[in-house]
Each structure stands twice: as structure tokens, then as C-alpha cells.
């Protein structure tokens, strides 16, 4: 990583409050090595440390959160796909999708990079330090491969490089327009002519990210609408060659999709997937909104992660995932910003929690499952999403302990929503009482990328974004 103009931060730190898997250290001492990894965590300042060498972080220091599901280019459409489709039945997911298709038709490689960089700056400032980019734009405006078939994937990598965010790039396999339907003209930029060319793209990207500790590559069969059983077998051949690779898929987001699946395949989508793919902890099922309790029991037992994107699911009118029941069965989950209609870690978690409060008409949205131990809701939401995101993106993140990457978010201790809190409740303050970003400093892989609330390159990145979205 070179492009972010970042400040390297190897060394020794005293954090006023350091998030730990089992609580907090107040203060906590932290050592970051030159590879950007956490070398040591101490409850007391080691005798061998010279106090003059110890840098101070006066806020609440948290592990960076994974944003496990993003379509970065959709940031350019945010707030602009609200109504106006003129569809006779009114506005719904499918009318939004038509607007999104019209938007992506026009995007050049430079546009994709400019929009993605803006989205990634906003993610970093929100407290996300790693993003899972579910990247389905592959072909040129005529639906033909670029001279470099990885052109648009590499634009995503360039945007990540310019911002310093860590990335699990998930190139998407998309071969058809619906179950047994050819792709439509509007889908031409998403489609690979054959699975072999997709497999070549994945191998090319794997070589391209080798040696960059912030970058991983996974695979993403788009959805059961867009891939067949044979395509899933081809995905399996790729993941067999690369053990531990993340596999992400959209599933059961809309009732229209569930109905199509039942009508054409004779099963609901999650049940069909579980019957036709070896779903395990490498897998992330994005949305799973309309899973039945039997399906979600099986997902929980598989070790897979459910990727919840509450703001997008609300914006698109998808429905509400039965999180209270699923979490109570020990199911793993994480969060994503998906369409990037708004980019906010706390808004995602807050909406997730409030949806459950509204449905169940109680305030403890998630049940206490661990040894009867009570945890504050902000902490429970944050920690569960941390663990799910780390597993989903297959990166060494999600906790501040030796061997993990130094991805840190320092919350401003003087932010109004945090005043008067003890460390035990401070995440409730962030989650439920804040409406402005309060991540003061953000580090990824041992390099500061946000300082005093500002990203190092936010101005130039914003200007490029402005030029793209201001164009007719
Ligand atoms: Zn998505």
C-alpha cells in the first residue's frame, strides 16, 4: 500500500481506554510492529518502556469494523433512486434496480474508481477499516471485455490503495438474468461469457494482491437468480484450489426471488443453496431476509455468516431479518453498507437493533446467550458484528490482541454522546445517542489514515467524485 499518503505508526501506545475481547483496559498499552500488526497488549506499562517513547491516545480505542458488503459504485446513485420510475405499480426493489442499471451503463473505469474512493473515505471516517467489495461490474459499455479483463476490478484496488482501506475483493460471477433466463441487455456489463473467463479473473486478482497484507480475494456467485448449479460447482473448484477463500452470495432478499425459486427450483432459496453447495464458515449469505426458521437454523449450524445491511434493506423495502431468533440460536452475523445509500456504522447497527425492538416490542433486541452474562446492547451489537465481519472477510481483524492487524478506531472522548459514560456503556452512547461521526483517528494496518476526523486525501477524492456525479 503506497498511495494514501499515510503516516506510519509503528511503536508503543498508551490508550486511555482499550477495547478488549473481554472488556476494557483503562488504560491499556499497545505495541504495533513495523508490519502493521499488533505485537503486544499490556495492562501495565512494561518496565522496559521509556515513557517518553509512549504515544498517547486519549479516547476510546476500538478494533476497526468490517463492512462485509459493499457495491462502492452505487454511492454515486445514493439518494437519487428515490421515486420517479413512473412504474404503474409504484416504487419497489425492482424499479430501483432498473434505475441502478441505467446508472451503471454510463460509468467509465475512471468513474468507478472516483466513486469507490469517495465511498471508502466515508467508510474509514465512519469506523470501517476493511470492506468486502461485492464487485459485479466487469465488462465495458458494450458488454465486451476490456483489453485488460480485470480493468474494473483493478480500479477498485486503486481506490482502496488511494484511501488506505483494507479490502476483500469479491469478484462476482453472473451468468444469467434469472432462473433459466438469458441476461438482459441492461445486465451486459455484469456477465461473464463463460465460467472459465471468470476463473481466470480470480487467478489474475489473486496474483495481483499477493504480498499486500491489506488485500484478499474471494468469490461471489451473485445470487440464485444469476448463477446455476453448474456455476456453483465451478465456484467450488476455485475455492478447492484456494482453501479459506471467502464465498459471498445474495440470498432471499426479496419475496419475488423466493417465489421464483420455489416455482422454478421447487425449493426456497436458502434451502436450495444448502442442498446444492457445501455452505460452511467460509460462506456469507447476504440479506437472508426471508429465511424460514428451519432454513436459518441450518444456516446457524453451518457456521456461515449472515450479512445484514439494515439501511439498504430498509431503503429498498426488503423486510426485516429475524435477528433476535437467529442470534439466539448462535447464528453468526455481520453488517454491510451494501448500496451505500448512507455510510454509517452506528446507523446500521442502530437500525438493526431498533427493527427488532419494534417487532418484539421490547428493549433488549438481542437475547443474552453467553453463560447468562449480561452485556450492554451497544457492546453486544458491536462485538458480534466485529466477529462476523472478520470471519466473513477472512482477514486478521476484529480484536485488539497480538497477531491481529493494527486496525484501530479512536472515538473522541469529548463527543457529547460519550460524556458521562463508563467504558462499559460507552458503546451505547455511540450506538444510540450519536448522529454525527465521532471517530477521531483511524488506523489501518499500522498506518494512520484518518487524523482528527479528516482523511489525508479527502479533498482531492471529493473533487473527483463531485465531477462524476455532477455530470448529466
Ligand atoms: Zn448487495
Low-confidence stretches: none
**Count of DSSP-assigned helices:** 14
What is the CATH H-level superfamily of the domain at 65-308 and 317-349 and 385-393? Metal-dependent hydrolases
Write down the CATH class of the domain at 65-308 and 317-349 and 385-393: Alpha Beta
Description:
Strand 17 and strand 18 form a beta hairpin. The model has no long low-confidence stretch (mean pLDDT 95). This protein has helices at 93-105, 109-126, 151-163, 195-209, 229-241, 255-265, 269-276, 293-302, 310-315, 323-328, 345-360, 377-393, 423-433, 458-470; strands spanning 7-8, 11-20, 23-25, 28-32, 38-42, 54-63, 65-70, 128-135, 166-173, 215-217, 220-221, 247-251, 283-287, 305-308, 332-335, 408-411, 439-444, 447-451, 454-455. The chain is built from 14 helices and 19 strands. Helix 2 packs parallel to helix 3. The chain has 472 residues and is α/β, with parallel strands linked by helices. Bound molecules: zinc ion. Residues 69, 71, 134, 250, 286, 338 line the site of zinc ion.
Amino acid at each position: 500500500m503506497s498511495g494514501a499518503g499515510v503516516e506510519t505508526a509503528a511503536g508503543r501506545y498508551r490508550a486511555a481506554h482499550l477495547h478488549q475481547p473481554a472488556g476494557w483496559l483503562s488504560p491499556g498499552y499497545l505495541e504495533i510492529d513495523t508490519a502493521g500488526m499488533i505485537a503486544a497488549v499490556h495492562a501495565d506499562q512494561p518496565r522496559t518502556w521509556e515513557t517518553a517513547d509512549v504515544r498517547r491516545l486519549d479516547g476510546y480505542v476500538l478494533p476497526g469494523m468490517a463492512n462485509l458488503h459493499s457495491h462502492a459504485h452505487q454511492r454515486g446513485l445514493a439518494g437519487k433512486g428515490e421515486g420517479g420510475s413512473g412504474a404503474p405499480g409504484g416504487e419497489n426493489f425492482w424499479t430501483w434496480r432498473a434505475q441502478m442499471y441505467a446508472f451503471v451503463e454510463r460509468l467509465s473505469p475512471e468513474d468507478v474508481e472516483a466513486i469507490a474512493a469517495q465511498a471508502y473515505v466515508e467508510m474509514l471516517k465512519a469506523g470501517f477499516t476493511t470492506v468486502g467489495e461485492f464487485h459485479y461490474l466487469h465488462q465495458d459499455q458494450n458488454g465486451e471485455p476490456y483489453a485488460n479483463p480485470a480493468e474494473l476490478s483493478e480500479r477498485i484496488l486503486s481506490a482502496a490503495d488511494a484511501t488506505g482501506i483494507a479490502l476483500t475483493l469479491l469478484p462476482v460471477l453472473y451468468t444469467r438474468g434469472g432462473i433459466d433466463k438469458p441476461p438482459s441487455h441492461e445486465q451486459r456489463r455484469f456477465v461473464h461469457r463463460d465460467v472459465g473467463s471468470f476463473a481466470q479473473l480470480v487467478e489474475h486478482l489473486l496474483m495481483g494482491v499477493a504480498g499486500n497484507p491489506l488485500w484478499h480475494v474471494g468469490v461471489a456467485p451473485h445470487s440464485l437468480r444469476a448463477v446455476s448449479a453448474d456455476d456453483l460447482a465451478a465456484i467450488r473448484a476455485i475455492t478447492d484450489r484456494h482453501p479459506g477463500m471467502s464465498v459471498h452470495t445474495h440470498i432471499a432478499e426479496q419475496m419475488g426471488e423466493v417465489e421464483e425459486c420455489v416455482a422454478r427450483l421447487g425449493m426456497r432459496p436458502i434451502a436450495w443453496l444448502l442442498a446444492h453447495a457445501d455452505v460452511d464458515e467460509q460462506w456469507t449469505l447476504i440479506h437472508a431476509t426471508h429465511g424460514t426458521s428451519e432454513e436459518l437454523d441450518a444456516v446457524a449450524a453451518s457456521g456461515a455468516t449472515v450479512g445484514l445491511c439494515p439501511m439498504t434493506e430498509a431503503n429498498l423495502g426488503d423486510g426485516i431479518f429475524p435477528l433476535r431468533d437467529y442470534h439466539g440460536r448462535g447464528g453468526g452475523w455481520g453488517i454491510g453498507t451494501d448500496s451505500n445509500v448512507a455510510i454509517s456504522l452506528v446507523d446500521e447497527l442502530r437500525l438493526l437493533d431498533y427493527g427488532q425492538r419494534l417487532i418484539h416490542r421490547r428493549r433488549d433486541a438481542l437475547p443474552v446467550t453467553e453463560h447468562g452474562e449480561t452485556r450492554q446492547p451497544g457492546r453486544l451489537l458491536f462485538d458480534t458484528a466485529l466477529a462476523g465481519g472478520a470471519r466473513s472477510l477472512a482477514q486478521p481483524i476484529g480484536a485488539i490482541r497480538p497477531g491481529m492487524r493494527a486496525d484501530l478506531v479512536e472515538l473522541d472522548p469529548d463527543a457529547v454522546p460519550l460524556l458521562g459514560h463508563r467504558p462499559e456503556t460507552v458503546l451505547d452512547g455511540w450506538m444510540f445517542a450519536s448522529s454525527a461521526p465521532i471517530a477521531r483517528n483511524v488506523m489501518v494496518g499500522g498506518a494512520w489514515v484518518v487524523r482528527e476526523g479528516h482523511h489525508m486525501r479527502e479533498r482531492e477524492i471529493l473533487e473527483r467524485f463531485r465531477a462524476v456525479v455532477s455530470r448529466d
